[in-house]
Input
Amino acid sequence: MMRAIPATIASLLFCLLCALPGAPALAEEGKAQPFIVESYYRIQWGHFDEFMELFKRNHYPILARLKELGQIQSMNAAFPVHHAGEDSRWDWRMTIVIPDRRKLDAFEKAFAEVTAELYPDAAKLKQEEQRRFSLLLEHTDVPITLDDLSGW
Output
């Protein structure tokens, strides 16, 4: 049952990758190109601390282990300094860089293995992850590309 969470994430990453402009051209070059995704979270008022507690307990350890294994090149979190209107606010952004967009299948496999290794009680993890996601008003994953401006 826990396979569904990593499979869903990997499927999402793959779909987002295919939707990127120039993705086929990048693959043809034969060079390792990073896959970068920014995940934006808008959390119900009054539930930010609970959301972050669940994230730090159940999801961050998986990401940290994947970074140790080289499946994630880098990751960082950002928080807005000032308020925004309800229609445009986000509470937290997580940016993850996967070193080679051609190896998302290896990332999916490693994600599933690490999840099983760190969380042998799959039912408890599923319950807590469902709770974490129930605290969200909105969650958006945005694949991005970075451009070197030195050649402009």
Remarks:
- Helices lie at 4-19, 23-29, 48-68, 104-118, 122-134.
- The longest strand covers residues 35-43.
